[in-house]
Write a structure and sequence with these properties.
Length: 346
C-alpha cells in the first residue's frame, strides 16, 4: 500500500492535519518491537521483514478481517513493562507530529495493555497519560486521549475503565470509545455505563457500521448518544439511516486503507467515502492503525484524492470538519478551527 513516489506525497504532507481515529495498539514501530523483543525475551522472527509479516498487512496478504486481527495477536506480546508502554505512547505522538498532525486524538485500550503482564488498569492509564502529555508539550502538538472498551469483554471491565477515564478528564482524557466485534456482540450491556460516562463529562465515539450493519449506526445515535461514529461506512446501505446521520450532523471517522485491508470494501476505488460526502454526511479522514496498515495520514489523504477522486478542496474542508468534531473544549476548538482556516486559506 505504501507508495514510492515522495513528490506527490509532499502536497499532502504539507497540509496541517487532524486525526480523530488512531489506535495506540496499532501504532508500534517495527524497530521498537525489535528492541522490546531483545530486552524482554519476546520470541520474534530473526529479520525485520519476517516480523513485519506478523504485525503489518502485506500487499500479498488476504484482505480479510481475520488476517487484520491476527496482527494484533502478535502485537499484544510486546506490552512487557511500564517503560514499554511509556515508549510506545511517546513514539505514537512523535510519529503524528512528524506527519504534520496538529491535533491527535489517540485511543488506547487499557484492558489490552494491562493483560500481557497483569498491570492494574489505573497504572496503565497513568502511564499513557503521562507520556502523551510530555510528548505533546515537547513537540507542540495537541493530544486528546480516548479510553476504548470492547464489546466482546465484560461490562464490569468497561465500567472500571469508564470510571477511571472520568477521574482523568483533568489530565487530557477526553472521551470513551466502544469498539470490538460489532457483528457478533450487541451494545446493550454498555448502555448504562456509557450514559453515565457522558453524564460525567466524557465525550463518546462508537465503532459502528464497519463490520456490523447500518442499523448499528442508528443504535449508536439513538440509544447510545454517540457524538462521532468510528468507520460507519455501511451506513450507505440504508437511506433512512443516512438521513438520520445527516440530520444529526454526527461526524464519521472514516479509515479508507483499514477498510480495504480488513475486507470491509473489496478495493480502494469501491470505498463509499465519496458517496458519503455526496450524501451530505459529515466525513473525516483517519488512519485507524498506521503501523499495521503501513501508512501515515498523508498517505491516507493521497488515497482519498488520487484513488477515490475526492477534490483537494474537499479534503481541506474535511480537515476543518475534523477539528470541529474534535473533543477539545469549545473555546480551544474555536481558536484551533480559525487557525486552520487561515492556514488552509478557507
Amino acid at each position: 500500500m505504501l507508495r514510492d513516489e515522495t513528490a506527490p506525497l509532499n502536497k499532502y504532507f504539507a497540509l496541517p492535519k487532524v486525526e480523530l481515529h488512531r489506535h495506540l495498539e496499532g501504532s508500534l514501530r517495527l524497530t521498537t518491537m525489535v528492541d522490546i523483543a531483545n530486552q524482554h525475551g519476546v520470541t520474534v522472527p530473526d529479520s525485520m521483514f519476517n516480523l513485519s509479516g506478523l504485525v503489518q498487512v502485506q500487499d500479498q496478504d488476504p484482505m480479510t478481517f481475520t488476517n487484520f486481527l491476527d496482527k494484533f495477536k502478535t502485537l499484544r506480546l510486546f506490552y512487557k513493562s511500564p517503560d514499554v508502554i511509556h515508549r510506545v505512547t511517546r513514539e505514537a505522538v512523535e510519529d503524528a507530529a512528524k506527519d504534520n498532525i496538529r491535533y491527535l486524538e489517540l485511543r488506547f485500550t487499557p484492558v489490552a495493555l494491562s493483560r500481557a503482564e497483569g498491570f492494574p488498569l489505573h497504572d496503565v492509564m497513568d502511564w499513557v497519560i503521562t507520556s502523551a502529555q510530555e510528548a505533546a508539550k515537547k513537540l507542540k502538538i495537541k493530544v486528546g486521549l480516548i479510553a476504548s472498551v470492547n464489546r466482546h469483554e465484560s461490562a464490569d471491565l468497561a465500567e472500571q475503565v469508564a470510571w477511571l477515564a472520568a477521574e482523568h478528564m483533568k489530565d487530557g482524557l477526553v472521551g470513551i470509545d466502544l469498539a470490538g466485534n460489532e457483528a457478533e456482540f450487541k451494545s446493550d450491556p454498555f448502555h448504562g455505563i456509557l450514559k453515565e460516562a457522558k453524564q460525567a463529562g466524557l465525550h463518546l465515539t462508537i465503532h459502528a457500521g464497519e463490520w456490523g450493519p447500518a442499523d448499528n449506526v442508528r443504535d449508536a445515535l439513538e440509544n447510545l448518544g454517540a457524538e462521532r461514529i468510528g468507520h460507519g461506512v455501511r451506513v450507505m446501505e440504508d437511506e433512512s439511516i443516512v438521513a438520520l446521520a445527516k440530520e444529526s450532523g454526527v461526524a464519521f471517522e472514516v479509515c479508507v486503507t483499514s477498510n480495504y485491508q480488513s475486507g470491509v470494501v473489496k478495493s480502494l476505488p469501491e470505498h463509499p467515502l465519496p458517496r458519503m460526502i455526496a450524501a451530505g454526511l459529515n466525513v473525516t479522514v483517519n488512519t485507524d492503525d498506521p503501523s499495521v496498515s503501513r501508512i501515515t495520514l498523508s498517505h491516507e489523504y493521497q488515497h482519498v484524492c488520487e484513488d477515490l477522486k475526492v477534490p483537494f478542496d474537499t479534503l481541506k474542508q474535511s480537515v476543518i470538519k475534523a477539528a470541529q468534531a474534535s473533543f477539545l473544549n469549545e473555546a480551544e476548538k474555536a481558536k484551533f478551527v480559525e487557525s486552520l482556516k487561515q492556514e488552509l486559506n478557507l
